[in-house]
Design goal:
This is DUF2079 domain-containing protein. By secondary structure, this protein is an alpha+beta fold. The protein contains 2 helices and 3 strands; from the N terminus they run H-E-H-E-E. The chain has one domain. It has a 3-stranded antiparallel sheet, covered by helices on one side.
Length: about 70
């Protein structure tokens, strides 16, 4: 998807509303009804949250407090 400045602001607002501090993405998604393009999800999350940190077999984005 196309990530605009408005998209980033909207997502940031939602994360703060729900007090989300961390976003985690596993290398492989299991149990999904449809095939998941993990690389596309990671690219989109990086566009929204900045560069992730690699921890074991997951990607981790820490969301700074407001």
């Amino acid at each position: 998807p196309i990530v605009t400045d408005g998209t980033i602001r909207e997502v940031d607002s939602d994360l703060r509303h729900w007090r989300i501090e961390t976003v985690v993405l596993a290398d492989q998604v299991h149990g999904a009804k449809f095939e998941v393009d993990e690389e596309a999800v990671r690219r989109t999350a990086t566009a929204l949250f900045g560069e992730p940190q690699r921890v074991d077999d997951v990607w981790l984005w820490r969301i700074p407090p407001a």
